[in-house]
Amino acid sequence: MENYFIHESSYVDKEVKIGKGTKIWHFSHVLSGAQIGTGCNLGQNVSIAGDVIIGNNVKIQNNVSVYDGVRIEDDVFLGPSCVLTNATNPRSEVSRKNLYENTLIKKGASIGANATIVCGVTIGRFAFIAAGAVVTSDIPDYTMVQGVPARRVAWVSRHGHKLEKKDSNGFYICPETGLKYEETAQQTLICVDIKENQSLPEQMSTGRKNYQYYKKLQIDRGLNETN
Q: Half-sphere exposure of residue 7, counting CA atoms within 13 Å on the CB side?
């Protein structure tokens, strides 16, 4: 008995691997050879090519096509209508089917709505690509980028909050969880309290307040420190 859900309007070809608890919603197509992990959610009008590997707990929103050569690790979020590519210089009259360029989206990364990921790049763990950004180069772990082309604007916590000011001990503190982050000598960011390959504790895996609440909280704290 199948332990995943496929909406009756969607097509899933033969020789596809789909993990337990995954849901594939309306008008989607998964091509032969694709691998999809456990607990994933594919929204309406999603296309998954055959040479694609998707990890566990991945959320793909409506109107997203994942082309050959893309690898998506666990806990990745792909926002509505974001764009992934696999050829830098596509031409209709020149066949490059054996020359597709690989793209790797690492654990916990988020790609915002309508963002474009030009192929051949690596999106780091827990990176955050803002809506509408165009990514043309590798993005480090815990980095938030925006714009065209995408440029770094801040470090970002595992819960998706900007980390803009260090505390007296030299740590960035996530306003939602209190988790500490440290900038290394190599100008990368690491979480001091939870290793990047570990799952979140259960009490941290469900949001309690929305983004605007924590944004205001950080602003108020900044004002208090300057008064």
A: 15
**Hey, what CATH topology would domain 1-156 get?**
UDP N-Acetylglucosamine Acyltransferase; domain 1 (2.160.10)
Q: What's the pLDDT tens digit per position in 62-77? A: 999 999 999 999 999 9
pTM recorded for the entire structure: 0.95
Q: Which of 108, 5, 122, 106 is nearest to 57 (CA)?
A: 108
Locus of tokens 């895996």? 205
Among 125, 122, 124, residue whose Cα is nearest residue 103? 122
Give the tens place of pLDDT for each residue, 142-193: 999 999 999 999 999 999 999 988 999 999 999 999 999 999 989 999 999 9
In the chain, CATH 2.160.10.10 sits at 1-156
